[in-house]
């Protein structure tokens, strides 16, 4: 039993167990077992009925023990990736009080943003965030200097700096309920990991993690997402939609109960067709192609939700996407996700156990993506187990959930220490209110705090280990100083901007304790200051009540690809150059608005730089006439639209090119008017001086006419 590893993947619908034999050179699957829960004892990765889940675990354990011929006592498990909570938050500092001089100051700002994310999560869940959640990683999204994005904050001058982060947290209750269910099944947890880490570890080696790769585990109730870049896992996410959505759509369309629909779905995937019997007793054969055609809207919805979450977490299209889990076998799901991410089809692929290095695949193992996660749990939980580490900070013991290498900063976050509170205070401060918020005006800059780790100087990036002792010392206070309103707020120049043939004044106004003041006023303790700075296009339009009429975009979807129609967007011009609502205005600028027009179908072809028709020119009774035929069919939800049909934002259109057809003589009568008032007798149709009929084909340059008999 030395090299034998027993692992469990405890999922929303089922529990999967595997036994593997692991040595230095290979991994061999000994046995596997999957048993579904009898009731909905789990939802979205969280155990709701511990005894019921424990009962399913016991069945899996007993089956593997019987086949293996020996009792199993220890097991490797994983906390569900779908239980991870992702939160975005930011922190801002006043650079005039706390200038950023080095990378340590930047890290302090990032940790403040991380703590803001933790507090935000705790507030949403009505719980103490520091006690109920473990931070298992975070990634910086961007820095801002005076509300504009910037690459580095070190030695920058300005009014304020901010950092935006995306952080991932794991609820402690997830771990506790998981351990309790395993204990009730008479098993001891040998090692534990996180599901996304397990799947990543076996499919994406360290050398590949410098690439921006996304792994999506599509299960029954949820789809879990993990993203790598620059050698590490940068973020996790989850969407509450997965394989069950497809099963429900199949159930609704073919009048099947849910369990039967699930069986039919699996059979379609494996055998390309299935015999079905609906609730009315009618039987029929369902083919793979019919399945895809009838359920394609739900498949596309699943792909859309997953792709949108990837773009939200990653901020861009990744290099590649790997799909695992039973839901990844949903027909055309990979192609749909590639479309929504604007990736080539070969950059989104389903990865199965055959992609796991050193794994010996034999007849006992189903090929495909279903068993990637349980095998990953067996390997990763042993190699990279999740552990607890205890350290001491300022005489208080802190326990950390160890997923990645831990640092001093991680310990501060888990302990709830706001490191900016340990900066030295500005000398003899003036406490004032600015726009209703308390602001402290420092004299001189306070010194940053100092950190000691086991008695030696350290930084927030210094790695820590079990039983380390940390001390955080407050920095020295600064010297007393005073400032003016202009020094507090910044540039206060008034500008005049022309709009609608009138001049509008923009700028900054101040009131102190209810009285108007100039920018040179020197602030006193307990002053209450109100100020407003208006300098953007948006400020002028709001002041003039024009902002409600502005349309910033008119997106539609043509053949499942987004297209922004310029004609449907309000054009903002500043000094006759295109601008945006956030454009900063200057003295003597002129603002103009070109109103948006409701687009029609014809405008699509102009945006696509295509002609919506083809034509020929002929001569009728010696007069030139141009004949046109539509080159495309445009439809919405199966209904054909005309060229003059009005469009609405986000409409989804299908454009198909028509087959080129020949013009015939009778087409001319759609473009010419005949005066038949004095017409008598018979007439003859002529084409190029030869007798013709109404259905005679005509070509560019032909001479047509009608000759009346006397």
Defining traits:
710 residues, alpha+beta, Nucleotidyltransferase, domain 5, Ubiquitin-like (UB roll), five-stranded mixed beta sheet, 14 helices, flat
How is the secondary structure organized here?
Elements lengths: L3 E7 L3 E9 L4 E10 L5 E2 L2 E2 L2 H19 L5 E6 L5 E10 L8 H22 L4 H4 E13 L2 E3 L9 E12 H13 L3 E7 H9 L9 E6 L4 E7 L2 E8 L3 H12 L3 H14 L1 E5 L5 E5 H27 L5 E5 L8 H8 L7 E3 L8 E2 L11 H12 L3 E7 L2 E7 L5 H8 L14 E5 L2 E5 L8 E4 L2 E3 L10 E5 L11 H5 L5 E5 L2 E5 L1 E5 L2 E2 L11 E6 L3 H7 L11 E4 L2 E4 L6 E4 L2 E3 L10 E5 L6 H7 L5 E8 L2 E8 L1 E5 L2 E2 L11 E6 L25 E5 L2 E3 L10 E6 L2
Parallel strand pairs: 3-19, 6-11, 12-17, 17-18, 20-26, 22-31, 27-36, 32-41, 37-44
Antiparallel strand pairs: 1-2, 2-3, 4-5, 7-10, 8-9, 8-10, 12-13, 13-14, 15-16, 20-21, 22-23, 24-25, 24-26, 27-28, 29-30, 29-31, 32-33, 34-35, 34-36, 37-38, 39-40, 39-41, 42-43, 42-44
Helix pairs in contact: 1-4, 5-10, 6-7, 6-8, 8-9
Task: Kindly summarize this structure in a few lines.
With 710 residues, the protein is α+β, with helices and mostly antiparallel strands. It is 24% helix and 34% strand.
Q: What would you note in describing this structure?
A:
The chain is of the alpha+beta class and 710 residues long. Among the domains are: 206-356, ATPase, nucleotide binding domain (Nucleotidyltransferase, domain 5), CATH 3.30.420; 386-481, Ubiquitin-like (UB roll); 603-708, no CATH class. The chain contains 14 helices and 44 strands. α1 (50-68) packs across α4 (172-184), α6 packs across α7 and α6 packs antiparallel against α8. The longest helix has 27 residues, at 288-314. The protein starts with a strand and ends with a strand. The model has no long low-confidence stretch (mean pLDDT 83).
């Amino acid at each position: 039993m030395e090299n034998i590893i027993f692992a469990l993947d405890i999922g929303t619908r089922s529990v999967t167990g595997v036994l593997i034999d692991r040595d230095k050179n290979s991994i061999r699957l000994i046995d596997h077992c999957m048993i579904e829960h009898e009731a909905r004892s789990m939802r979205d990765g969280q155990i709701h009925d511990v005894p019921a889940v424990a009962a399913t675990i016991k069945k899996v354990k007993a089956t593997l023990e019987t086949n293996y011929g020996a009792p199993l006592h220890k097991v490797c498990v994983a906390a569900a990736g779908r239980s991870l909570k992702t939160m975005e938050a930011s922190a801002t500092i006043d650079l005039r009080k706390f200038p950023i001089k080095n990378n340590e100051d930047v890290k302090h700002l990032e940790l403040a943003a991380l703590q803001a994310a933790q507090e935000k999560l705790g507030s949403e869940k009505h719980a103490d965030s520091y006690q109920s959640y473990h931070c298992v990683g975070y990634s910086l999204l961007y820095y801002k200097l005076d509300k504009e994005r910037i690459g580095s904050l070190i030695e920058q001058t300005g009014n304020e700096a901010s950092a935006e982060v995306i952080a991932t947290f794991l609820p402690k209750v997830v771990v506790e309920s998981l351990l309790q269910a395993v204990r009730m099944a008479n098993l001891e947890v040998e090692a534990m990991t996180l599901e996304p880490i397990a799947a990543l570890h076996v499919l994406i080696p360290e050398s590949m993690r410098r690439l921006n790769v996304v792994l999506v585990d599509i299960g029954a109730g949820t789809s879990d997402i993990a993203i790598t870049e620059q050698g590490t896992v940068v973020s996790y996410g989850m969407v509450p939609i997965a394989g069950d959505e497809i099963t429900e759509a199949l159930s609704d369309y073919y009048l099947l109960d849910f369990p039967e629909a699930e069986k039919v779905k699996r059979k379609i995937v494996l055998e390309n067709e299935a015999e079905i019997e609906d609730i009315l007793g009618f039987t029929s054969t369902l083919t793979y192609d019919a399945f895809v055609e009838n359920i394609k809207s739900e498949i596309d919805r699943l792909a859309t939700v997953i792709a949108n979450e990837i773009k939200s977490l990653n901020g861009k299209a990744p290099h590649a996407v790997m799909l695992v889990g039973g839901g990844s076998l949903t027909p055309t799901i990979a192609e749909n996700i590639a479309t929504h991410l604007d990736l080539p089809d070969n950059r989104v692929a389903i990865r199965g156990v055959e992609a796991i290095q050193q794994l010996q695949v034999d007849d006992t193992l189903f090929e495909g993506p279903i068993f990637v996660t349980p095998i990953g749990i067996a390997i990763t939980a042993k190699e990279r187990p999740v552990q607890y580490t205890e350290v001491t900070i300022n005489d208080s013991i802190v326990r950390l959930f160890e997923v990645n290498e831990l640092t001093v900063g991680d310990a501060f976050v888990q302990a709830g220490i706001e490191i900016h509170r340990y900066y030295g205070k500005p000398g003899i401060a003036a406490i004032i209110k600015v726009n209703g918020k308390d602001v402290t005006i420092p004299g001189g800059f306070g010194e940053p705090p100092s950190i000691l780790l086991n008695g030696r100087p350290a930084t927030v990036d210094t790695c820590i280990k079990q039983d380390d002792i940390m001390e955080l010392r407050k920095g020295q206070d600064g010297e007393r100083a005073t400032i003016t309103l202009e020094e507090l707020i910044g540039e206060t120049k008034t500008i005049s901007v022309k709009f609608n043939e009138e001049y509008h004044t923009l700028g900054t106004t101040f009131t102190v304790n209810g009285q108007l003041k100039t920018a040179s006023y020197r602030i006193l303790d307990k002053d209450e200051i109100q100020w407003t700075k208006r300098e953007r296009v948006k400020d002028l339009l709001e002041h003039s009540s024009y902002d409600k009429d502005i349309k910033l975009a008119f997106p539609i979807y043509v053949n499942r690809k987004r297209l922004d129609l310029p004609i449907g967007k309000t054009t903002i011009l500043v000094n006759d150059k295109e601008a945006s609502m956030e454009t900063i205005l200057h003295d003597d600028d002129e603002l103009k608005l070109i109103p948006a027009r409701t687009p029609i179908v014809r405008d699509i072809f102009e945006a696509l730089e295509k002609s919506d028709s083809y034509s020929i020119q002929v001569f009728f009774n010696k007069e030139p006439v141009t004949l046109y035929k539509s080159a495309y069919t445009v439809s919405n939800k199966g209904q054909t639209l005309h060229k003059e049909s009005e469009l609405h934002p986000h409409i989804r259109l299908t454009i198909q090119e028509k087959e080129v057809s020949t013009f015939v003589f009778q087409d001319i009568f759609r473009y010419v008017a005949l005066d038949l008032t004095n017409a008598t007798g018979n007439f003859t149709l002529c084409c190029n001086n030869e007798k013709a009929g109404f259905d005679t084909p005509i070509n560019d340059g032909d001479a047509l006419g009608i000759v009346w008999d006397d």
